[in-house]
Amino acid sequence: MDREEVGRRGIPSLLKPSSSSSDGGAGREEHIASDITQLIGWMPLIELKPIASKDGVDARIVGKMEAYQPLCSVKDRYPTLGFPGMYNKVEQLQKELPNVHVLNQATNKANSEAHFRMTGPEIWKDTTGKVDIFVAASGTGGTVSGVGKYLKMQNQGIKIVCVEPAESPVISGGAPGKHKIQGVGPGFLPDVLDTSVIDETVTVTTEEAMANARRLAKEEGLLVGISSGANLAACLKVASREENKGKMIVTAFPSGGERYMNSDLLADVREECTAMTF
Predict the structure, then answer these.
(1) I need a labelling partner for 150 at 20 to 30 A (CA). Which of 16, 18, 225, 264 fits?
(2) pTM, 2 dp
(3) What is the mean pLDDT of the segment spanning 253-272?
(4) How many angstroms from the chain centroid is the CA of residue 213?
(5) Which ranges carry the Tryptophan synthase beta chain-like PALP domain (predicted)?
């Protein structure tokens, strides 16, 4: 929520410059939150998900948040229990430190509301209302829930497809597990996720996600992250069905590939560059 909305909701104490903002995640929200909190006079306090250390946390993002002098070091506070452990750590910090406001993207309804107010209308406008299927991977569930709600209000016939890791198919009713599609598949059902707008859930393996992310780079010149590759993989599965022939399928690429330079996603490229001679 923005600063004005905080005031409208009757939480004026949160506007004090001495307050701090805290949240946990894979890096995208923390990157933006560190900018916003600094602008409105709060002190950023960020928890990052364990991502095999360097595999997703862009050094520039860590350095940027460190430059803002957060109340705790993001470098030395990687929880060890995945998303649940990360959020437990955030709650612990909230109890230990004064004037801390937890943004909590997994429970904050402003998350899905933003996609309802902005992403959904943008898709509807750009496709002139001709979108048939919307496909999106779910992390907090904000994108698929907000966009799904808006598109369904415009046309109940639009199909909403949720994407999750095959290794952790919790939305499909399976058990949580480890995977490398960062930013999605947290291993639990976030409060923000509105399953009532979802018509189908498609699972994608980490290998499928990485393969399609690499394909986007080679064939389309789009350097995207692993979750973007997962969205493409799911789109191709949905598009391959006979009943979807000729239908307009829309998705989003939420992650850039720059932060994955040291990950398995671009391992072949690194090896090739290392072997080059001049």
Answers:
(1) 225
(2) 0.77
(3) 88
(4) 16
(5) 87-252
